[in-house]
Design a protein that fits this description.
The protein has 197 residues and is mainly β. Helix content is 4%, strand content 44%. The protein has a single domain, classed as Jelly Rolls. A hairpin with a 6-residue loop joins strand 6 and strand 7.
Length: 197
Amino acid sequence: MSENSCYLVAGCPGQRELGHLAVWSVSSAKAGNGVDCLRDGRRDTFWQSDGSQPHFVNIQFQRKVELMELHLFLDYKTDESYTPSKVSIRAGTALHDLQEVHVVELDEPTGCIRVPLAAGVQQNLTPDAHLEYLEDASPLHTFFLQIAVLSNHQNGRDTHIRLVRVYGPRADPMPLAALSLPCSIKTCSFGMYASVR
């Protein structure tokens, strides 16, 4: 398992993590293992469902966002029957109109599973895999993303997910040449103050 997977935004060149813009909820949780464990960035914590399948993680944005990838950190070696084996990714404007975007079948995953949400991506769902984007790859535009755990390994009932991250394309800043400044900018630190966002 690589150190830079799932945990650092730098692991996705040209993308930024958008989870902080969303309201997160889950279908159920054991005490002490709630939705906050999905976002704390720690390997030793996890969300644990409490109830019958399917189990849901709901990610709701206040405005329509562009999404490229979903990262799930799973650990079969530690969680065994709590590890998801089949996951459905759904998107829509709200809970009532979700459409299935992706179904992911997993075989004893340990590490970061990168699920492509954009159209035009070469798939490779092995842990810590790199995704290859085609030139015409287009992001998924959505208000609402849902992760539905349909089944677990060894027919387990409850599930553990250790971390979830959602990534969208990084907005290109305005090129400095387009600002028509009376002087030239030579350093990055000076360029940071050349315009107001």
